[in-house]
Amino acid sequence: MKRMGNKELEKLNKELNARLGMENINATKSTENPERTGDGAADQRVKRASALRKVKKKEKKRFRVWKAVLAVMILLIVVVIGVFFVLRQLGKQSLLRHESLEDIQITAPDGAKVEDSGQTVTYQGKKYRRNEAVTSILCMGVDREALEREDDVIGDNGQADTLFVAALDTETGNMTLVNFSRDSMVDVDVYNIQGGYVETKQMQLCLAYAYGDGKEKSCENEIKSVSRLLYGMPIDAYAAIDLPAVSVLNDAIGGVEVDVLEDLSSQDPALVQGAHVLLRGNQAEIYVRSRDHENVDANNSRMTRQRQYLTNFIAKTLSQTRKNLSVPLTLYDAVTAYMVTDISAPEVTYLASLLLQGSFGSQNIVTIPGEVKMGEEYAEYYVKEEALYQIILDVFYKPV
């Protein structure tokens, strides 16, 4: 074999050193980043794949949970809306009763001509036809303090201290509240405590409720007197609530804001005239119930406060109902223990759906004009007949 020269040995030595250097560099890189080669890299890949699978599994589980929650939420919304519209349809079918009382016919003041049993009226040169789309509900706030009257004639069923007829146009959703003074003088059927008819006598409208059982018969007797005052216009339904229920309804919607119209600070320090107050708890009852019994005109001042409160209460309730369709039924359930009514849950739902179509403000409340006088014992309110009849035509009829 031919021996290598010195130059050839040096060249071979350099090549070996170069190869050894590259191997050392690769070994160092392998140590610094073991994922790239060898068993260490395989272990790292396994760990990363396992961690990725766990993350994906958690994400899938979380997605399934959210899907389940979303499905439940959608189901609840569908149920609420479905119940709302089912109740609405049932209420629509039953509310428009238009049942006239057997012994009360639609009449009119002198100068008005009534035809077709009150369906058509001619008054002051204009012809009107009854608006069959309007349903009317007598709303009463009942004060149940006992009355000091003859024991054989009257019980302690209380008085209808607050009286409104809600006239709702079922085609437009517009509602008018006709506000009656409790002291309006009208014919009232008087019954003894056994329920036997005694006589029909002119007295304050609020007393019609007392001549009954404090429940349905009281409401029916009040309806009869209100219908007489309205020249025989039929009332389709009624709702009477005890005045303490005002606080329950008030708090159920988070309170009602008012600018206090007259000083009631003797009953609640916050109710100073001119103060802006969010009524909570029994403040609401104090605000709509209180009156100065020594002042003959005290009830008119109280009615002004009641109209203000009712306007703000209805506006807030409608605002909440637009966000949550179950609000009317929640309020209905909240006052059931304090209420006597022939309005069913479906009818409440139907009425609420109608109100959402229209708008409501202080202009939707009308008060029957009249004059208050001091009677032998109590204030007496005598309505202005012409103004009253024009209100009837505006609310319950349409020009032909």
Question: Describe the biggest sheet?
Answer: 6 strands, mixed
What is the approximate shape? Answer: elongated
Cα radius of gyration in angstroms = 39 Å
CATH superfamily: LCP protein
Number of helices: 9
Return the domain count: 1
Count the E strands. Answer: 16
Q: So what's the CATH class?
A: Alpha Beta
CATH topology: Aminopeptidase
- Poorly predicted parts: 19-37, 73-87, 146-153
Task: State the end-to-end distance.
Answer: 136 Å
Kindly report the spatial arrangement of strands forming the biggest sheet: 12-9-4-5-6-13
Q: Which structural class best describes the helix and strand composition?
A: alpha+beta
Q: What does this molecule look like?
A:
This protein is an alpha+beta fold. The chain has a single domain (96-399), classed as Aminopeptidase, CATH 3.40.630. The chain is built from nine helices and 16 strands. A six-stranded mixed β-sheet has the order 12-9-4-5-6-13, sandwiched between helices. A four-stranded antiparallel β-sheet has the order 1-2-3-16. A two-stranded antiparallel sheet has the order 7-8. A hairpin with a 4-residue loop joins strand 14 (370-374) and strand 15 (379-383). Helix 2 (38-95) packs across helix 8. The longest helix is centred in the N-terminal third of the chain and has 58 residues, at 38-95. The N and C termini lie far apart (136 Å).
